[in-house]
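ATP synthase subunit a
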Amino acid sequence: MTLSPDQTILFDLWGISLNATVFFTWIVMLVLTLGSILVTRNLRPDVPPNRWRTMLEVIVQGIEGQIKEIAGRSDRPLLYYAGTLFLFVAVSNLLLVIPGFEPPTASLSTTTALALSVLIAVPLFGITSRGLGGYLKTYLQPSFIMLPFNIISEFSRGVSLAVRLYGNIMSGAVIATILLGVAPFFFPVIMDVLGLLTGMIQAYIFAILATVYISSATDSSRASSSESAHPPQTEKETS
């Protein structure tokens, strides 16, 4: 029993071994790219939306609504980024119902790469929103003593994201393999349903956590609120 698609070598390409993680990641990207092209190819006001376009609009509006609840504002760049994370993880897990498909999110290398993208996106969004100096000041809040702890907190977020996503997907695959060996005719249907449910939940949680981390880095109200908590004393008050 293989615990990770990294261990499954499909074929050699020009002397380079291509494992299942890379291959099925390409499959997911191909499905997302072709699906978006097919759904939006007639995206015009005079063309009535079909069910696929309606479903895509519902997904986009749902993600945008979650961002507004978390960040308190509409943020198009964050919508594009968080939406891409959600769709990639969700489609990777949904394709698990296809026989022979191994979700790339069951590989620690994939989940680590996704977590690293979040770690890079957080300062990029923060610098874009606050400026370099304004973002670096957040590491000194509420006091400069917190600088090492804030740095450790940034890296621990990425580690927790990677381990959480990998652990949940991998544990589900291991449990499914064990149950298939016990009762191969009864448990597959149940495990497929549970796999779809947990896959969507994990995609939602991952995208929401990324949105929370980025929103906290771009929220300038934290700095202003900390300054307003200790307003400068006026001449009348000092007297």
